[in-house]
TrEMBL record, chains A, B:
One of its GO terms (molecular function) is oxidoreductase activity. InterPro entries: FAD-bd_oxidored_4_C, FAD-bd_PCMH, FAD-bd_PCMH-like_sf, FAD-bd_PCMH_sub1, FAD-bd_PCMH_sub2, FAD-linked_Oxase-like_C, FAD-linked_OxidoTrans_Type4, Oxid_FAD_bind_N. It comes from Taibaiella soli. Gene3D superfamilies: 3.30.465.10, 3.30.70.2190, 3.30.70.2740, Uridine Diphospho-n-acetylenolpyruvylglucosamine Reductase, domain 2, Vanillyl-alcohol Oxidase, Chain A, domain 4. It comes from the Bacteria. This is FAD-binding oxidoreductase. PANTHER family: GLYCOLATE OXIDASE SUBUNIT GLCD. Pfam families: FAD-oxidase_C (PF02913), FAD_binding_4 (PF01565).
Amino acid sequence: MSFSKIQSSDITFFQSLSDVRVLTDEENLKRCASDETEDLTYLPEIVLQPETVPAVSQIMRYCNEHNIPVTPRGAGTGLSGGALAIMGGVVLDMKRFNKIVNMDMRNLQVTVEPGMITQELQDFVKEKGLFYPPDPASKGSCFIGGNVSENSGGPRAVKYGVVKDYVLNLEMVLADGSVIWTGANVLKNATGYNLTQLVVGSEGTLGVITKIVLRLIPAVQHDMLMLVPFRKAEEACAAVNAIFMAGYTPSAMEFMERDALEWSMKYVQSSGVSLPDDIAAHLLIEVDGNHYDQLYKEMEAIGDIVQQYDIDEILFADSAEQKQMLWTLRRKVGEAVKSNSIYKEEDTVVPRAELPELLRIIKQLGKEYGFESVCYGHAGDGNLHVNIVKGNMSDSDWNEKLPQGIKALFKEVIRMGGTISGEHGIGLVQKEYMNIAFNDIQLGLMKQIKNIFDPKGILNPGKIFLS
Amino acid sequence: MSFSKIQSSDITFFQSLSDVRVLTDEENLKRCASDETEDLTYLPEIVLQPETVPAVSQIMRYCNEHNIPVTPRGAGTGLSGGALAIMGGVVLDMKRFNKIVNMDMRNLQVTVEPGMITQELQDFVKEKGLFYPPDPASKGSCFIGGNVSENSGGPRAVKYGVVKDYVLNLEMVLADGSVIWTGANVLKNATGYNLTQLVVGSEGTLGVITKIVLRLIPAVQHDMLMLVPFRKAEEACAAVNAIFMAGYTPSAMEFMERDALEWSMKYVQSSGVSLPDDIAAHLLIEVDGNHYDQLYKEMEAIGDIVQQYDIDEILFADSAEQKQMLWTLRRKVGEAVKSNSIYKEEDTVVPRAELPELLRIIKQLGKEYGFESVCYGHAGDGNLHVNIVKGNMSDSDWNEKLPQGIKALFKEVIRMGGTISGEHGIGLVQKEYMNIAFNDIQLGLMKQIKNIFDPKGILNPGKIFLS
C-alpha cells in the first residue's frame, strides 16, 4: 500500500474543522513519536486532537479519501509500539476525549470517553461505591481507551478478569468516517456477531473508539496484602498453583524475581523490604472481600500453604502505607528495568500451572542464546513478563541472536497451550512472531477482518500483521 | 445463492467416509426437521453423524465444493430455529461428539466435544470439585456446543456470567474443511483479534465447533432459595433492582408472571406452591456461597428488602426436595406455555433497571395490538422472555398484526438500551427484526465477516440475516 504525505492543503482542511486542535510543532510531534516500548521513535507528520465524535468522523473520512495513515493514540504508555505512526501521517491524539458521558447508577454501568485516565475512572466510580477492577501497572497515566484497545489486564485479573470482561458496548468511528455502536448496554446478548469483543484488543486497527460502556461491580470493602520471599524462584511459581488448588482465589498474585524487586527498590529509593542474599523471588499476594474475619482466615491459610516451600519470613502489610509501598515497588518494576539497561520485554502467558516450567525454560534459553532476563508479572494468570536486558550483550548478538532466542521461547509458550501476548498486544514489536502463534489460515481470517473494517488500510498501518 | 440438491453420488461419497453415519430414513429426517421453536418443520435431505474432526472436515470440504448447505445441529432444543435446514441439504448432527477430551485439574480447564449434554458436563466437573455455571433451562437435554453457538445464559448468569465468559478456546472446522483453533488456553490474551468471541454466539454460521476449552471455577458449597409472591408484577421487577442497589448479588433472580407459574404447576402436576388469587408475579431468588452463616444473613437481608413491596408470605425452601421442586417449576415454564397454546417467544433484554418499564410496555402493546402475553425470565440480567399466546387470536391477526406488535416492542427495547435476543439467538424466526437492532453499516460488517468464513454461504444458510 502506498500512503500520501501530508500536504499544506490537508493542514488547511484539518484547521477548518471545529473541535480539532491541529499540532505541527516539534514538541508535540516528538511527544507522539514514542511510547513506553523500548527506545523506538517514529515522528508523525501531524498531531490532531479532536474533541467530538463528528470531528473524528470528518478526520477519518478525509484521511480515507486521501490515503493518509491515521494512528490513534492514548496516553502513550503502550509496550508494543501500537501508538507509533510508523508510516507517518496523522497521530490521532485522543486526550481531549476525557469525560464521563453517563454514570448509570441504576444499572451499575458507566459510559466513558477513551481519553480518561484509568485511575481517574476508578476513583470516580469508587466514590459512588462501585469498582472497575482492571488496573494495569500504568493506571495512573494510561487511558481507558488504550486499555480497551490492548485488552489490558493487570494484577487483579486473576480474580476479576480483564478489560474484555467489563466492556458491554463501544461507539467507534470506522475508517470511512461512519459511526457505529458495536452492541447494546446489556449483560446478555445473543443478537448477531459480537463486534464488541472483536474490537476489544484490536489495537486501533479496526476503528477509533469514541465511547466505552463498562459494567461495574459493587466496591469491595477490605483487602490484605502479604509478601512472601522464596529461596527458589520455581517454587514461587509452584506455590501459585498450590494456592488455587486449595480453593483460594486471591485478588492478586504477583511474581517478582529478585532482580526485579531489587531494581525497583533502588529506582523508587525505598528500603522498606529487607532482601536477604538467599532470596530468589517473591510472591505479592492480595486477598479481598467484604468480611474482615474471613479474609484474615484466608490470609492465614495461604500463609500455611506457602510454608511448605523454602521461604523466609512473610511480610504482612499492616498499614495502608505499607500496602501502598509494596504495590509501588511492584508497579515500578517495569520502569526500573528500563532505567537500568536497554531491554526488550516479552509478555508471555501460559496456562497457570505451567509457570514453573516456563520459568525454567526461560533461564535455559537464556544460557543457550546468551541473554539475561528479569522476570515478573501476574503469576495468578500465568502471565509472565520476561525482561531481557542488554547488559553486556554485543550489538550483533542483541540484533541477530536474541530474536532467535525469543522465537524459541515463543515456540515453547505455544507448545504449553499459551500465547505470545497476555496484555501488551502485538503492535509493532511482536508482529514478526505472529506466525508462531497462528498459521496462515488463522492469520488470513484476521487480515480479511481488518480489510472489512478498513479496506484502504489507513488505520494504524503496519501493526499486528507482518504484511 | 443457489444450492445443489443431494444426489445419489453425494450419498455414496458420504458413505465412503470413515466415522460418519449416513441417515436418510424418515425417522431421522423428521427428528432433525424441528427444534423447540414454535411448530416449525423443515425436512433435511440427509442427516450425517460424524464422530471425528477429519470426518467433519471431509464433509465440509465436499459440501463446499458441491454447493450443498450444511446445518450443524446440537440437541435441537433451540428457540430461534437455528438448527433447522431451511434450505435443505445436510443436517450435521453432532451427537456423537460427546466426550470429555481433557480434564485439566492443574489449570481448572476442561476440553469437551460439542455434543455433550450440558448437565452431564456440569455433573462431571462437579465430581472434581469444580463448577461450570451457565445452565439454560434445557440443561438436562441441550448440548454444550449449542450453548456456545447461542451464547446461552440461564438463571445463574446474573452472578456468574454467560457462556462467553467461560470459553477460552475453540477448535472449529471452516466451510472449506480447514481446521483451526480460535485462540489459546489462557486467561489473558492480547494476541491478534479475538476469533473465539466472534464465534461464540455465531449460531453455526461461521464454522462447525469440534472442541471447546472452558475455564472452570471452584465448586460453591451452599445455596439457599426463596420464592417471593408479589401482588403487583411491576413491583417484582422493581425489587430486583432494589436488591442489587443494596449491594447483594444473588446467584439467580427469576421472574415469573402468575400465569407462568400456574401453567407450569399444572404441567408438572405439582401442588407444592400455594397461589392466592391476588398474586400477580413471583421472584425466585437464590443466593450461594461457601459460608452458611453469611448466606443466611444475606437471605434475611433480601427478605427485608422485598418486604417494602406489596407481597404475600415468602416461601423459604427448606429441603433439597423443595429447592428441586421450585427449580423444576421455573425450568418447565417454557414447555408448559408451549403445551397450552400456539405461541411465540420473544427473548428481550434491557439494562436491568428498565425491567418494570419493559413489563409495562409489553402489556400496553398487548392491548394495542390485541395479544396476550405470559412473561418470565432472568430478571437479574434484565432478560425477559415474552411468551405471546395465540389463544383466541384470529389467524390473520396472528400472522399480520402480531409481527407489527413485536416490531413495536423491539423498537422500545432498543430505545431502552437493550436488544432483541439475550440468549436464544436470532436464527430463523428473529432475522426479520435484525434491522431494528442494527443499521445497514453494522449489518454490512457482520455479513462481510460471514462471507470471510464461508464465502459460498453453505453454513447454516438463511439464518441471522434476512439476505
